[in-house]
C-alpha cells in the first residue's frame, strides 16, 4: 500500500520540490503552506509521516507537533522537522515535544529519503511489538478464561443439579446451604468477568492518549476515609477485624474514588487472603513529595524473587500448592491502574515471612 506523506512548508519552491521528489519515489503526497493548514490536513487524512518546517506563519512547527501529539489519531505519526536552524536548543525542543528526527536545510535527496526510510522501519518495528503484545494478551485470555470461568460455573451447575434431582428430600436448612453455595459461586464468576473486562479496558486506555487524560483527570479528596472503609469491610468479611492496623494521614490523590477503591480492594484483599489469622495486616498512608504513599504489610506466605519478576496478568502463583479464588489478575490490575495514573507499585517479599506493597500516586495538590 502506498505510504502517504504530508509536507508542511511555507516556502513554495521548497514545498513543491519535496512533493515532486516524494511523488517520484512512489509516495502519496499532501502539501500545506502553513502550520494551521498542516494540522487540519493531518487530522483529515492521517498521513503515515509528516515533514514539517519550524518557522512558519499561523502555527510554527513546534505548535503543529504539540497539537498533533494531543490527539489519539495523530499522536503516533512519525514527525520529521526540516529547518535551517542548527542550534542544539532547537533540536532539543523538537525532541522534547516528541519529534522523530531533525534535518537541517538544505539536505540532499539521499539524506531525506534515508531519514524517511529509517522512520518507517522503526514504526514498523513498533507496530510489530504492539501486535506481539496484543497477541500475547489474546493468548493469555484464551488460555486462562475458560479455566477460570469453568471453576465457579461448574459449582453453580453442580449445586443446581442437586436441587433439581433431589428437591423433594431437601430440608430448609440444606436448601439454604445450597443456595448460599450457588450465590457464592455466582459472585466469584461475576468478579472474574469484571476483572477480565477491566484489564482489557486498561490495555486499550494505555494506548489511547485521550482516554488517559480522562482517566487521570479525577481525584480523591479524602482517600484516608475511603481506604479505612474498604480495609475495614474486608477485615470484617474475613472475620479478622482484630488483625487490621490502620495508620492513615490526610491528603489527596490524583485518581478517582472508584479506581482507588479497586486498588485497595485487591491489595488489602490479598494481604488477608494469604496471611494466617492472628497476624497483623497493616495499612498506612502518608504524604510524600508531590504525592501520597500507600503501604500494605502482611505476615503471610510471601513470594519469591522469580514470582515477583514474572508478575503478570492471568498468572496465579503456585496454583498447584495453593487454592486461590481468582486468576491472580487482581494484582496485575492494581499495578496497571497505578502505572496509568503515573504512580508506582513495588513489592518487597520474603517467602514464608512477609509481603510489603508500596504504592505511590500523585497528589492533586502536587
Strand order of the largest sheet: 2-1-3-4-5
Strand content: 15-25%
- The CATH class assignment of the largest domain is Alpha Beta
Strand and helix order: EHEHEHEHEHHHHEHEEHHEE
Residue-averaged pLDDT: 83
Measured as a percent range, the helix fraction is: 40-55%
Q: Return the CATH architecture of the largest domain.
A: 2-Layer Sandwich
Distance between the termini: 48 Å
For the record, the count of structural domains works out to 3
- Rounded to an integer, what's the Rg over CA atoms? 28 Å
Description:
The chain has 366 residues and is of the alpha/beta class. It has three domains: 4-107, Rossmann fold (3-Layer(aba) Sandwich), CATH 3.40.50; 133-207, Helix Hairpins (Orthogonal Bundle); 215-362, Histidine kinase-like ATPase, C-terminal domain (Heat Shock Protein 90, 2-Layer Sandwich). The chain contains eleven helices and ten strands. It has helices at 12-24, 35-45, 61-69, 88-96, 109-166, 172-206, 209-215, 223-237, 257-273, 305-309, 329-340, and strands spanning 4-8, 28-32, 49-53, 79-83, 101-104, 244-247, 281-288, 291-298, 344-350, 354-362. The protein has a five-stranded parallel beta sheet, sandwiched between helices. Strands 6-7-8-10-9 form a five-stranded mixed beta sheet, covered by helices on one side. β9 (344-350) and β10 (354-362) form a beta hairpin. The relative contact order is 0.08.
Amino acid at each position: 500500500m502506498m505510504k502517504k506523506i504530508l509536507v508542511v512548508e511555507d516556502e513554495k519552491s521548497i514545498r513543491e520540490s519535496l512533493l515532486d521528489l516524494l511523488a517520484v519515489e512512489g509516495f502519496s503526497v499532501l502539501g500545506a503552506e502553513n502550520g494551521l493548514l498542516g494540522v487540519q490536513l493531518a487530522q483529515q487524512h492521517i498521513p503515515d509521516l509528516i515533514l514539517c518546517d519550524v518557522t512558519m506563519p499561523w502555527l510554527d512547527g513546534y505548535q503543529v507537533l504539540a497539537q498533533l501529539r494531543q490527539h489519539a489519531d495523530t499522536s503516533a505519526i512519525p514527525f520529521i522537522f526540516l529547518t535551517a536552524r542548527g542550534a542544539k536548543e532547537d533540536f532539543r525542543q523538537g525532541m522534547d515535544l516528541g519529534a522523530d528526527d531533525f534535518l537541517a536545510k538544505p539536505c540532499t535527496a539521499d539524506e531525506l529519503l534515508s531519514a524517511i526510510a529509517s522512520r518507517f522501519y522503526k514504526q514498523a518495528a513498533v507496530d510489530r511489538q504492539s501486535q506481539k503484545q496484543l497477541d500475547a494478551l489474546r493468548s493469555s485470555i484464551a488460555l486462562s478464561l475458560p479455566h477460570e470461568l469453568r471453576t465457579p460455573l461448574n459449582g453453580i451447575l453442580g449445586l443446581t443439579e442437586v436441587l433439581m434431582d433431589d428437591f423433594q428430600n431437601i430440608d430448609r436448612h440444606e436448601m439454604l446451604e445450597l443456595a448460599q453455595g450457588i450465590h457464592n459461586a455466582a459472585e466469584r464468576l461475576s468478579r472474574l468477568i469484571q476483572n477480565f473486562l477491566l484489564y482489557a479496558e486498561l490495555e486499550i486506555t494505555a494506548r489511547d492518549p485521550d482516554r488517559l487524560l480522562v482517566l487521570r483527570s479525577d481525584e480523591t479528596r479524602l482517600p484516608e476515609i475511603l481506604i479505612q472503609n474498604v480495609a475495614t469491610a474486608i477485615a470484617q468479611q474475613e472475620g479478622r477485624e482484630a488483625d487490621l492496623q490502620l495508620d492513615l494521614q490526610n491528603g489527596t490523590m490524583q485518581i478517582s474514588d472508584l479506581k482507588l477503591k479497586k486498588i485497595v480492594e485487591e491489595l488489602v484483599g490479598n494481604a488477608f487472603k494469604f496471611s494466617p489469622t492472628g497476624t497483623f495486616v497493616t495499612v498506612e498512608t502518608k504524604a510524600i513529595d508531590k504525592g501520597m504513599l500507600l503501604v500494605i504489610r502482611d505476615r503471610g506466605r510471601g513470594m519469591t524473587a522469580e514470582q515477583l519478576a514474572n508478575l503478570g496478568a492471568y498468572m496465579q502463583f503456585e496454583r498447584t500448592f495453593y487454592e486461590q479464588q481468582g486468576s491472580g489478575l487482581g494484582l496485575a490490575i492494581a499495578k496497571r491502574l497505578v502505572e496509568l495514573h503515573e504512580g508506582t507499585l513495588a513489592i518487597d517479599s520474603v517467602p514464608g515471612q512477609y509481603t510489603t506493597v508500596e504504592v505511590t500516586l500523585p497528589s492533586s495538590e502536587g
